[in-house]
Amino acid sequence: MAATITVTPPQSQHDTARPIRKYTLVWLCHTDGSGTLPTGHLMNGEIVGITFTPDSVNAPTSLYDMTITDGSGIDVAAGLGANLSATASLRIVPMQTQTISAVVYRGAYVVAEEQLTLNITNAGTSKGGTVLIYLR
């Protein structure tokens, strides 16, 4: 069985009354426990949070891994999607860090007209879950 993804974009892309937009990504991995799934939607904004939730019926294998890459191959989840639980949700706030002249700078990942890709490994045969991506 091929890996699949269903994306539910926010109700409105430009609602000034609701500055945080939530994308819901429901995924199902391949029979080999992996998947490379482009979201199919162009996203814009700062990533202010990501939630990983295993499916309650077809839960992934414990310690499965997920990256969310942009068009340059950068993991916008900052490596925090490694060794995920098969039973508990995890919410992260990924930050990128850069050191210049001994000064550490931190900031949110920014996507501009980019399609993100879910990359799943070690999830078990045809297992699934949901990823929520919050953008401002």
CATH class type: Mainly Beta
Question: Percent of residues in beta strands?
Answer: over 45%
Shape estimate: globular
Number of strands: 11
What's the total helix number?
0
Helix content: under 10%
CATH topological fold name = Jelly Rolls
Report the oligomer: single chain
Estimated structural class: mainly beta
Reported CATH architecture: Sandwich
Q: Write the element-wise H/E pattern from the N-terminal end onward.
A: EEEEEEEEEEE
- Cα-based radius of gyration, to the nearest Å: 15 Å
> Would you tell me the overall average pLDDT?
90
Distance between the termini: 35 Å
Number of self-contained structural domains = 1
Biggest pleated sheet: 6 strands, antiparallel
Would you identify the regions where 5 or more consecutive residues have pLDDT less than 50?
none
Question: Can you tell me about this structure?
Answer:
This protein is mostly beta strands and 136 residues long. The chain has one domain: Jelly Rolls (Sandwich), CATH 2.60.120. Helix content is 0%, strand content 49%. It has no helices and eleven strands. It has strands at residues 4-8, 21-28, 35-38, 43-54, 65-69, 90-92, 95-100, 103-108, 110-114, 117-121, 128-135. Strands 1, 2, 4, 6, 9 and 11 form a six-stranded antiparallel beta sheet that branches. Strands 3-10-5 form a three-stranded antiparallel beta sheet, with no helix packed on it. A hairpin with a 2-residue loop joins strand 7 (95-100) and strand 8 (103-108). The chain is globular. The termini are far apart. The model has no long low-confidence stretch (mean pLDDT 90).
